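Interim report to the steering committee. The following record documents the input for Non-structural maintenance of chromosomes element 1 homolog (224 residues).
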Amino acid sequence: MDDYVELEKNHHAILQAFISRRIIEDSTFEKIVEETNRLCRKNLQPTDYINHINSYIMEYQLQIKDIRILPNPVYWVLINLNADEFSKSATKYTAHETTYFKILLEKMISNGGEIGKTEALNSGTQAEITLSKAETVLRSLIEDGWIKSIVSGYYTLCERSLADLDPLLVDLPKCNLCHQKVLTVNGKLNQCQNDCGTTLHHYCSQDWLQKHKNQCPKCKQQFK
């Protein structure tokens, strides 16, 4: 086959690192690539590995992609492209607990990716679980990396959710600059004041707006 992609020893080493870790912080990934290049006598960049491995594993509904949520650094994540990844990977959760997470997920999506702690707890009744059980499940979801608690009194999605559940998050806005999902921060989105539909990550907008004199990348008017 003309489009057959073969993985060499160095590619297998990188892929194995992702299989064992699932999520790798960018600086750690660079060190892994550096060591792999040294051992295999290669001179490839991190993106060279990502692109080549992805062309091989996409056939198996897998992909390595980058995820970033402030204030965290960039992470590289091995994801399953199946939309029901939570149900498959969360075998530790009961049917009611899985339903509870899906209820939370729906509410978080409709609210830009976050939910107030009180509302999250009270939502347990919709899944027929008690308040104390809801507290236990929320702690487990945090420990397993699906959600995280932030100081403003909200739960928000983690890198794992944004990666593994990406097909379910189609209603979350995307940044017009980096094209990744944008989550609300304390109930607010960083949007253009001219109603042109432009949404930007705060960390993306800072550099852009400074260089372009506060000009929206879409409508070319003052962003805010």
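Strands lie at 23-25, 62-67, 75-80, 114-116, 147-150, 154-157. The committee is asked to note this result when reviewing the revised timeline.
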